Amino acid sequence: MFERFLSQELKSKYQEFCLKSFTDNSKNAGVTKCPNVTCSRWWKKVNDNKGNGCITNTTIVCDCSTKFCGLCGLREHDPLPCKNALDWQKRGSEDTQTRIWRELNTATCPNPQCGVTIERYVTNEDHCLHMICSQCKFHWCWACRKRFKVGGADADHENYYKCRYLQEGSVGEEVKKRERVLRESQMYKFYKERMKDCDEGVQQLQLLTTQLKETIAIEGKEEEFQFLIDGIDELITATLRKKILNPVAFYSAHDGKKKLFEFQLKYMNEHYEKLLAMLTTQPTKQKIDVNKIKLDQQAMLRQAMQTKDQALIQQILNRAREQIAKAKAVMRPLSYYKEREEDIVKATRSVSEFFFKLFQKVRDGDLVTILGSPDPKNNSWFCSNCQRSNTFGESVCECAWTAVKK
């Protein structure tokens, strides 16, 4: 009854809260909703044939074709355990991202007589560590949170850009926590960007499927070119599996298996790229168009961020991804595919078998040890092209920049 006294915005928030409360409670009763926002289907868990309450197959395929986990209700995340999938989702929430930003960009003045909170947004170009409190005028180091003085007999820092206390590890718990948050934040951003690339790849392949089906239907050769549709379907499945392997790498232990896991990912990409090259083409003109779309997207996002309109921001992102997918989805002539039918069938089978074995090894723990939280020793990513290790602050390997310069 009281809803009639609420504004439309508050009413929407109240309804969202009620739905979330119902959804959370329904999970305890074995009922879960399809995570697809456009789908209204609900599912109930049932016992297995043994009647012992165990669920042997946790992946549910909804009528809308959405695959999701029957235990936690999230989209399909096998072989990543539910607790890791839930933690990954939480790390991407607005509340968590706000907390991380606050921990990375605010600090308390180390002067015991002051203690005021200071905000500083540090960019890649701003590496000066010298801070002066606006309240008490105390000089201190942003990196180690200690007194800052350069030069003289009582100097405690060599220059304004490096901190030996931080490099030696002789810092307090607050600084250690910030360094851990920074490292995990960079790791999360790195793998999240690669998941977005996979989403764009799926959109590209779906558009290519539509183009091919329309062309094949006009020619009336559906059965003759079924191998082609099967190949693209396998690529879509492989892309979704590549997407799931990113959070797996995020939680992987830095142990003896890590290098083997990275090399398996390298071979996985080789199989994947070989089949992708057979099925798609991307002229230079299309690459230029993609770069222009991304630049336009960044400009529109900067304007949208000022209004904090989440719906508008999401709309801009979705539109840009669709445009990028259209720019990339370029099919070859049907005669090209027919001439290479045998090679395409072999490559499709190779991708399917390799991904199946790879996922089985990850599930069994033969390739990677999945931890409950990121391993502190895991501070770099492996470039499958040049086999160079890069820090998570570097989203692109040096070999890629070298290729562009050439």
Structure description:
The protein is mainly α and 406 residues long. The protein folds into three domains: 2-76, no CATH class; 109-171, no CATH class; 191-405, no CATH class. The protein contains twelve helices and ten strands. The chain has helices spanning 8-28, 82-91, 94-105, 164-168, 173-219, 226-250, 257-279, 284-307, 310-328, 334-339, 341-364, 398-405, and strands at residues 31-33, 42-44, 59-61, 67-69, 106-108, 117-119, 130-132, 139-141, 380-382, 389-391. The strands form five sheets. It has a two-stranded antiparallel ribbon with strand order 1-2. Strands 3-4 form a two-stranded antiparallel sheet. The longest helix is centred in the middle third of the chain and has 47 residues, at 173-219. The termini are far apart. The model is unreliable at 48-57, 283-288 and 401-406 (pLDDT under 50).
